[in-house]
Amino acid sequence: MSIRPGTIFAVAWLAWVASWILAAFWTGRTEKRAATWRAGWDVWAPRLLPLAGAILLYHASRNIQHEARLWHVGHGGALALSAVTCAGLLFTWWARIHLGRLWSGAITRKQDHRVIDSGPYGVVRHPIYAGLIVAIVATAAAQAIPTGLIGAALIVAGLGLKARAEERFLTAELGTEAYGAYRQRVPMLIPRVKWRDSQSRSDQD
Asked: Could you tell me if residue 74 is left (phi over 0), alpha (psi between -120 and 50 degrees) or otherwise beta?
């Protein structure tokens, strides 16, 4: 009996969320946290957009049989996209393990914070976000309904904004010189794709 692609998607995401919550306890001491007392849209958008997107993506998974699909990927296509989703989530875990106790869910500077430029951090500067984007886009593509696609777009936009905010914060905390060579060598989110941004610097997510 073949496994339904929907089951693979559900198990993969549930396992990732549960394990990520547990792993949140594996983190070092925070020395400084990005200020939120004067928070504006640039601070709240990276939080609210992914939350809204996740709600829409979950809603799409619950109502996939009741909304018209924009395209049909078929059983084989759904299996392939579920494999891509799993690969993206595994990539986030590779990055999480490689980063170790320097990881934080918020924008912070940890004790003994330093640039990590090996492993997945030698591929992109934000491998956790990159893996999530791959998994989310693959999931939404398999659903192929407007609600899920809008949700995926919101999450991707929010992660991009958060990545830029982290880079600004850690550049100020750790110094521009510590990031210069790394930023020049390693792209932000897409392997082998680089672009200049006067405000963007390398970071650890």
From this structure: left
Q: Which residues pair with 33 in a beta bridge?
A: 108
Number of domains in the chain: 1
Report the predicted TM-score, pTM, of the whole model to 2 decimal places. 0.86
pLDDT, position 13:
96
Q: What would the pLDDT profile of 63-77 be if each residue is shown by its tens digit? A: 777 778 999 999 999
Kindly provide the b/e burial profile for residues 76-106, where b requires at least 16 CB atoms within 10 angstroms of the residue's own CB. Answer: eebbebbebbbebbebbbbbbebbeebbbee
Domain that holds residue 43: 38-185
Residue 1 lies in a domain: no
- Inside any domain, residue 15: no
Burial of 1 (0-12, 13-18, 19+ CB in 10 A): exposed
> Which 8-state DSSP code applies to residue 195?
-
CB within 8 A of 66, min separation 6: which ones? none
Q: Which two tokens stand for residue 156?
A: 């991707």
Cα 58 to Cα 49: distance, rounded to the nearest angstrom = 14
Structure tokens at 202: 């390398």
* pLDDT at 199 exceeding the cut of 50: no
The angle at the Cα of 36, spanning 126 to 50, to the nearest 5 degrees, equals 45
Q: Does any domain span residue 72?
A: yes
Residue 157 maps to a domain: yes
